[in-house]
Write a structure and sequence with these properties.
By secondary structure, this protein is of the alpha/beta class. The protein has one domain: 3-Layer(aba) Sandwich (Rossmann fold), CATH 3.40.50.300. The protein contains 11 helices and 9 strands. Strands 1, 2, 3, 4, 5, 6, 7, 8 and 9 form a 9-stranded mixed sheet that branches. Helix 1 packs across helix 11, helix 5 packs across helix 7 and helix 6 packs across helix 7. The longest helix is centred in the last third of the chain and has 31 residues. The chain is elongated and about 80 Å long. It starts with 10 loop residues before the first strand and ends with a helix.
């Protein structure tokens, strides 16, 4: 089964409602792509703590650092990571425009809050502009962007078109136009949306898919439903029937407890099936599922399981 969909574009923006595990899925995508031989740059826009350790290295900073090397079976594949802060992106932008070092540092420290307050969306555009520069420079085969949660992801990605509507000339318009061109080109940029099989996350995923795919024109990869319970065919049997088939005798208390647990399991699976089906009925993109991992904390071993699941997923 082909895992080419993981690396069909230069940049993949991963987003989802807070709490659905989109950062973990972004890290799993990075690991899966590196296992296919790609050199991957993981960008944590919000600088979430712990992502460096999850990816097998040190804490992520605003300077790119290699976290793992030679991940693929043939010895290729690396994962590097960095954050991008708006003030740093502003300084880099000034440097790109030829502003000298001391003046640049002073301008980026003093001017950005004032300029950003007067220009809504500018901070987002600066970050996207830096990502665009990294993509143009081909610093990696694949750039994975761990985007802000769903409520901020659309404004983050809409900033370029929004500023293009209000800024009619100058470097801000140029930057917005260049970012918009990247977002509109499926060979350069795609989005991976993550949800849980619950009503509110699925609703927000459907809405976000509409905003990013239908309105902004960003091509969407398969929609990911994270943390799915496995099907349990045995839940269709009552505890009494299951016990008899194994020649066991249950007390009344045990039967009651087991029936309660089985009813809960059936309910969870039915809800899961319903929400996944709702997502499929509302959106044309393929839907893939990732397993629920019964661990209090996701570490490198669990991330490896999720990366394998992404590689083995059938997005057709």
């Amino acid at each position: 089964m082909s895992a080419d969909w993981l690396t069909t574009s230069n940049v993949v923006v991963v987003a989802g409602k807070g709490g659905v595990g989109s950062s973990t899925v972004a890290a799993a995508h990075a690991l899966a792509a590196a296992r296919q031989g790609a050199d991957v740059l993981f960008i944590a826009v919000d600088g979430r703590q712990g992502m460096g350790a999850l990816l097998g290295g040190r804490e992520i900073t605003d300077r790119a650092q290699v976290l793992q090397r030679n991940i693929a079976s043939k010895g290729s594949g690396t994962i590097s990571a960095r954050t991008i802060r708006a003030d740093q992106a502003f300084g880099d932008y000034l440097e790109l425009k030829g502003v000298g070092g001391i003046l640049r540092r002073a301008a980026s420290a003093a001017s950005l809050p004032m300029i950003a307050a007067a220009t809504p969306g500018l901070e987002h555009l600066l970050v996207l502009g830096k990502i665009k520069e990294l993509e143009l420079d081909r610093v990696a085969d694949l750039i994975i962007v761990d985007a802000p949660p769903a409520g901020h992801a659309a404004p983050f990605l809409r900033s370029a078109s929004g500023l293009s509507d209000v800024v009619k000339s100058g470097p801000v318009l140029d930057q917005a136009s260049e970012v918009s061109a990247m977002l509109a080109d499926p060979a350069r940029c795609t989005a991976l949306l993550v949800a849980l099989a619950e009503e509110t996350p699925i609703t927000e995923a459907i809405e976000l898919a509409g905003e990013l795919g239908d309105e902004i024109g960003l091509r969407l990869l398969p929609l990911v439903v994270n943390a799915c319970w496995p099907d349990r065919a045995g839940l269709a049997k009552t505890p009494a029937v299951a016990a008899r088939s194994h020649k066991l005798k249950l007390s009344a208390e045990a039967k009651s407890a087991l029936e309660s647990a089985a009813a809960f399991g059936r309910s969870r699976l039915e809800q899961q099936r319903h929400q996944i089906e709702r997502l499929r009925s509302e959106r044309p993109e393929p839907v893939i599922t990732l397993p629920r991992l019964t661990t209090p904390r996701i570490g490198p071993a669990e991330l490896s399981v999720l990366a394998d699941a992404l590689v083995e997923a059938d997005p057709s």
